[in-house]
Amino acid sequence: MSDAPVSRRVYKFAVFALAIGAFAIGVTEFATMGLLPHIARELGITVPQAGHAVSFYAIGVVVGAPLITTIAAHMDRKLLLLCLMGLFALGNLASMLAPDATLFNIARFFSGLPHGAYLGVGAIVASSLVAPHRRGRAMARVMLGLTIANIVGVPIATALGNMFGWRSAYALVAALGVLTVIMVAVAVPKVKLAGVPSARGEMKALGRQQIILTLVAGSVGFGGMFAVYTYVTPTMTDVAGVPQVAIPWVLAVYGLGMTAGSLIAGPLVDKSIERSGIGGMILSAIVLAAFGAFTHIAAIAIIALFLIGIAGSMITTALQMRLLRDSHDAPSLSAAMNHAAFNLANALGAWLGGIVITAGLGYRAPAWVGVGLCLLGLIVLIIAIALRRGDASNRSTVEV
């Protein structure tokens, strides 16, 4: 995009500004799970019904990621980022003010629309500010905002919700959105668009077999984690016997697992993208089964949440690298669609988890739904790997 790398000071300031937006997105996406009982009580609905807000946000991401990224393909990147974060702030302000469940769900949908496009475009902008050999690091530092959100932001938002009511958490996120708009306006330099593919070209790239299968594997396989995490607060309080005041610390444990997983996933993916993806799916299924079987033992349930975080980072990193490898000619849209895929998993997991709880199967049941989703995702991923190897073998035969 840009012709040459910017100074180190400008780069650091710009990446920090972009990471604040990623932090805000991470907080609003995951804090809702910790606040479901409070939301349900005030809005006069059940916890599974409150869980629909998680699905509506995720559907917003799924709709917004390809739509906004494609429509705004030729828009100035900095202006696009400002518009996206402005919409994000307004959506969370509307969430805070929503008087009933219907309007709350609508507000969550609009809050999710800019999610994938912001993270995708923000990562590409960050990578354009440095030399080619440092671009992966630049993208990772923007995404670090998501990881830190799970360690620090989500527990703080949950604690605020416990003390001052759930609306205060969305007020915090809206304020973070406004701060991001200011920071991006001041810190992020304008970048030149070069070689931007047409909307038709980007969509054509995403129509490839391997990209579709990777997105499906993520949409299904990662849903296992969300089936459990969406209802983690009532599960830990009602089944594991963890006090409500300790829930922010439980959520921080999951965030630490995601961080550890990110550190582990990097070297593993460098060695083998395919084995890392398969390993993450298998680990996730095993740990979710352990969570379902031993939820009543708080210590084991908390350790399982830590391991679920590790497995989740392994899956997301491996599938993101798979997408980048197979859609190098549509980087912005593929990055946005990766977030869309995982938010489709969010919607699917939250919905299926709510169904089994509503059916009277209890708060352990979502873990077993999660196991099934992980195994389905694993099957799709294995099929994708087998087809890719078959194509490579056929090309080698033709060349010989």
UniProtKB/TrEMBL annotation:
InterPro entries: MFS, MFS_dom, MFS_Efflux_Transporters, MFS_trans_sf. It is a multi-pass membrane protein. Keywords: Cell membrane, Membrane, Transmembrane, Transmembrane helix. Residues 14-389 form the Major facilitator superfamily (MFS) profile domain. The chain crosses the membrane at residues 12-34, 54-72, 79-97, 109-130, 142-164, 170-191, 211-232, 244-265, 277-294, 300-319, 340-361, 367-387. SUPFAM superfamilies: MFS general substrate transporter (SSF103473). GO terms for molecular function: transmembrane transporter activity. It is found in: Cell membrane. Its main location: membrane. GO terms for cellular component: plasma membrane. This is MFS permease. It comes from Brevibacterium aurantiacum.
